[in-house]
Design goal:
four-stranded antiparallel sheet, DNA-binding, single chain, alpha+beta
Length: 242
DNA sequence: ACCCATGTTCAGCT
DNA sequence: TAGCTGAACATGGG
């Protein structure tokens, strides 16, 4: 479910609720549900992997983490909703998500969101240059720099630009870094397109793959970087250069 | 049945 | 104190 492009789909799917009034709000989220009741949804927004359901004076922030899901006018038979919004005739249910109420959505910098029209590539490069010793695999997952990028996008983009995940930022030439950032955004939109088609996994070049489609070399799976996340590389195409 | 996963935070340790 | 590790969250697919 996660990664930025998937959140764009969520936003599109629940946008028809803009203008609808919440009649009742319930669930096991640790929030004051009464703050949501009798309020109209004014906007649906996203920031990276975060979803915002905006109301007058208050916003619901939802993060799907690894296993989060949602249903429109349907309920899961076995598990309770963390948050359930009841409208006159419809309902919106969220499962296994983090829910928070926040006053102001603008604390999130849209210029750091790879799926935003306000995405600012120059700003991302500036942030990267400030952390020269950080490995690129970790920087790509840094939500303050690349909000919305997850482990799949990380793996695919590193393969596309033939960069070893453990390359430190200071060892990446300017032109390569620029290209990398371009590919992050480009692949994220490809991800969105494929996800909508239901064909995402068909287009993976590194993530979960056995062989490199460029050179036929074996793809290896490593657990590297700060979070020891699964990282797939072609050792032939993505050699570590100092 | 078992293992793994598109994520993140936090407790507890060195 | 900083940095690392593992747990926790809890579901679903292969």
């Amino acid at each position: 479910m996660p990664e930025g492009p998937s959140l764009i789909i969520v936003k599109e799917n629940i946008s028809p609720f803009i203008g609808s009034k919440i009649i009742a709000a319930k669930g096991y989220a640790d929030i004051d549900f009464s703050l949501l009741e009798q309020k109209k949804i004014t906007a649906i927004e996203t920031w990276g992997k975060h979803l915002f359901i905006c109301l007058k004076d208050i916003n619901i922030e939802i993060h799907f983490r690894m296993f989060g899901s949602y249903l429109i006018n349907e309920r899961k038979p076995k598990i309770n909703a963390k948050l359930s919004l009841q409208f006159a005739k419809e309902e919106l249910n969220f499962y296994v998500v983090d829910v928070k109420l926040i006053k102001d959505v603008s604390i999130y910098d849209k210029e750091a969101d790879v799926m935003s029209e306000e995405w600012n590539a120059a700003k991302a490069i500036k942030k990267l240059r400030e952390i020269p010793d950080v490995k690129i695999c970790d920087a790509l997952l840094d939500q303050q720099i690349f909000s919305g990028v997850g482990n799949i996008i990380k793996n695919e983009v590193l393969w596309l630009v033939k960069l070893h995940p453990e390359t430190t930022i200071k060892n990446i030439p300017a032109s390569k870094l620029k290209n990398l950032i371009k590919e992050v955004v480009n692949y994220s939109y490809e991800f969105l397109k494929y996800k909508k088609e239901g064909t995402l996994s068909k287009y993976w070049k590194a993530y979960n793959q056995k062989n490199c489609s460029r050179c036929k070399h074996k793809i290896v799976k490593l657990y590297i970087g700060k979070g020891k996340r699964a990282t797939y590389i072609c050792e032939n195409c993505q050699k570590l250069k100092k």
